[in-house]
Amino acid sequence: MALTPETLPRHELNGLPVRVVESDDASRVGLEGRVVIETTNTLSIEVRDNGESQVLMVPKSGSTFEFAITDEAAGDEKSSGTASKLADTQPDPSEESDESDGAGGDAAGCARASGHAGEGVAYVTVDGSRLLSRPARRTETNGDSPWQ
Amino acid sequence: MDIAAERIERLHELARAAAANRNDDRARYYVRLARRVAERNRLTLPREFRRFTCDRCDAYLRPGVNARVRLQNGHVVITCDCGDHARYPYED
């Protein structure tokens, strides 16, 4: 269960590159950076410009986020081996976009991936209301517990 | 490997990177979140994670920076800046 467009709403958001595509507050549209802190109702995004970093809090409800997924997104810090890894991941975008067609159907169209080919990056657009949950509880599937 | 185990792995990396940038509070937040994910999904935290985090204050430990590592007879003692000791055995 790697990080794919279908699993993203249940996966770790901290550390992922993100862009605010739509928001009720026009001043937040277009913010771009990395997620550093997640709470039930907000995402804090670290925006870097000209070497200065600034952490901005964006409410989940009323916003639409576009996450960029690469295979090495977990490493997050500027890894030196990026070039070789990117070469390995080149075939991936096509597969991911194929799967995402299915996801768009079953997930009520909330998470849809536009598999921009290129450097092995997939962009996943998620409605913020889909992420409204405690960070640790998003991963769980209801009714899966052996104790209930 | 399921999503929860992967999240823990990612949070471990994030905590390590945050601690390396002297961002201790953020590292602590990642460690706490990883612990919470593990307990809610009934997973054992990876050994490396257990050895590099403080049980008492959830700090991500960096030997020589915020943790002291001393060898005693047959065991290692790691002392966090908060004063907590963790011990584990070693073999020659």
Compact description:
Chain A is of the alpha+beta class and 148 residues long.
Number of helices of chain A: 2
The fraction of residues assigned to DSSP E strands of chain A is 25-35%
Choose one word for the global shape of chain B. globular
How do the strands of the widest beta sheet of chain A line up side by side?
A: 4-3-2-1-5-7-6
Overall 3D shape of chain A: globular
CATH architecture of chain A, by name, is Roll
CATH topology of chain A: SH3 type barrels
Distance between the termini of chain A: 24 Å
Overall pLDDT level of chain A: 74
Question: Structural class of the secondary elements of chain B?
Answer: alpha+beta
Low-confidence stretches of chain B: none
**Biggest β-sheet of chain A, characterized?**
7 strands, antiparallel
- Hey, which two chains have the biggest interface? A-B, 20 and 20 residues
Which structural category fits the helices and strands of chain A? alpha+beta
CATH class of chain A: Mainly Beta
The count of β-strands of chain A is 7
**Fraction of residues in helix of chain B:** 40-55%
**Oligomeric description of these chains:** heterodimer
How many structurally independent domains of chain B? 1
**Poorly predicted sequence stretches spanning 5 or more consecutive residues of chain A:** 73-111
Protein name (chain A): Ribonuclease P protein component 1
Catalytic activity (chain A): Endonucleolytic cleavage of RNA, removing 5'-extranucleotides from tRNA precursor
Main location (chain A): cytoplasm
Family (chain A): Belongs to the eukaryotic/archaeal RNase P protein component 1 family.
